[in-house]
Amino acid sequence: MKFAKVVFTMAGILGLLELVPLYFMYNVIGRQDPPPITHPGFYYGFVGTALAWQIAFLMIGRDPVRFRPVMIAAVVEKFSYSVAVFVLVAQSRMHGSDLPFGIQDFTLGILFLTAFVKTAQPAASLKAISAAAPDA
User: Is the pLDDT of residue 115 over 70?
Assistant: First the structure.
């Protein structure tokens, strides 16, 4: 459980540090990596959604057993972005300089999957918990 706490807490903090500045870089990104962004709703929607996930990671880090089912969505979030980056770089539709972000998310996806497996409770302890629970 400690592994999951550390992994998700660190991922949430790292994500906040990387994503919050994007709110102030809309025009900078267009100048440094043309063409300029033409759909601000998609851009800010992406940043806001990604930011919400960082908060979810922090919540999972506080109580990994309780939020274990959400880890599955967290794994999908990490792998969907990383695979997209790998494919787009291979197709020359993204710069190779963006590859470290895909590698980072792929690595976090592996760590999230590992945390999911490590937080599984053995069947015997689940039976003991359900046996001790009062009937509804």
Answer: yes
User: SS3 for 26-71, per residue?
Assistant: HHHHHHHCCCCCCCHHHHHHHHHHHHHHHHHHHHHHHCCCCCHHHH
| 98 vs 85: CA distance, rounded Å | 7
Q: What is the rounded distance in angstroms from the CA atom of residue 81 to the CA atom of residue 85?
A: 6
DSSP 135: P
The values of phi and psi at residue 92, to 5°, are 60, 30
Distance CA 31, CA 113 (A): 37
Give CA–CA dist 100/84, Å, rounded.
Answer: 13
pLDDT tens-digit profile of 52-91? 999 999 999 999 999 999 999 999 999 999 999 999 999 9
Distance CA 134, CA 136 (A): 6
CB atoms within 10 A of CB 127: 11
Can you tell me the distance from the alpha carbon of 106 to that of 36, in angstroms, rounded to the nearest whole number? 27
Q: Does the reported pTM lie above 0.90?
A: no
User: What is the pLDDT at residue 12?
Assistant: 98
